[in-house]
């Protein structure tokens, strides 16, 4: 079988009946909500913990000085987001392949797909390496202030190890998510966040290493996450992991094409934040402009990471249901997820507007910066609502069948 071909069940088995009455809709909503959050809650928690590593890095650096906060924010928001978006997108091909393979009972293929993705993402990191090495001239070219560009370039160089950790973290996470082994991912993410905060305090507050200490803690934490996930896969996932295999190199170019296709949409979604930060750096009083927007982006990022987690969960749900030959269940999963995502976005908006004069204190003690953030709060709230649904449904291709079961109907949500 072509390794890039989705697994589809040969026949529909115990699929949902059409929900025509209110009681049937409530029943489906309740069942799908339980199934979704059983997967989404641990995944979302883990991704928020991973994002917390970035946020706490900004928080600790923000109390060193405004220039340092601008430099680290530029590094993580521009260089870091560029590589994060590309590598996460390249790894997203596994969500469909592993999810449907698991649903169809082809569990042994999960380890092959994961290793193939390791290879592709590791090579991708090598191609991304020049951006890290030449970060200072790149940021100068993008119009960043000289002082910020130099400091950001120095910080970026020290985070090169973190770049290569993503080549293993993303595929391993998709491997575990496809099997709904998400509790382990959540625990690994939580422990990594706690250890990261401890290292930031030790390196910055106790040792006084400044941004160098922040970069060191950042790389150590991310590699700790990658190694912990690999150890869990090897030790506790015997069905999906059968050892290293040369099959990982077979038909790798077809897998590359699928990975690139998966990366395009996600890259465009994440890189727009990078573009906004770059443009802000060209304004007058760039330090305050970049810092205030970076604080808002950090808060928005917490919500964004939650919805990336929900997106991963719905991808697992849909892929598993298609692998089992239950297209209507897959479709209903999407409907329930979109509705709940919109409600969550509205809650975030209300919370931001209520706390608009206070939430910046987490990142800075500057009164000027606090006022600048407060002015952006309403736009931030609207952005969080708009971003609540779109990441969940973008790029998902759902295959459903007409009641006759003889003609496939394909619709793409975007």
TrEMBL record:
One GO cellular component term: membrane
Transmembrane segments: 36-53, 73-97, 118-142, 148-170, 182-209, 252-274, 286-314, 334-355, 376-399
Keywords: Membrane, Transmembrane, Transmembrane helix, Transport
InterPro entries, A to Z: MATE_euk (IPR045069), MATE_fam (IPR002528)
Keyword Transport assigned: yes
Top-level taxon of the source organism: Eukaryota
Swiss-Prot/TrEMBL GO biological process terms: xenobiotic detoxification by transmembrane export across the plasma membrane
Cellular compartment(s): Membrane
Membrane topology of the entry: Multi-pass membrane protein
UniProt-listed CDD domains: MATE_eukaryotic
Flavoprotein in keyword set: no
MF-aspect GO terms: antiporter activity; xenobiotic transmembrane transporter activity
Predominant subcellular localization, coarse grouping: membrane
Record family assignment: Belongs to the multi antimicrobial extrusion (MATE) (TC 2.A.66.1) family.
PANTHER family in the record: MULTIDRUG RESISTANCE PROTEIN (PTHR11206)
The name this protein goes by in its record: Protein DETOXIFICATION
Species whose genome carries this gene: Brassica cretica (Mustard)
Lineage of the organism: Eukaryota, Viridiplantae, Streptophyta, Embryophyta, Tracheophyta
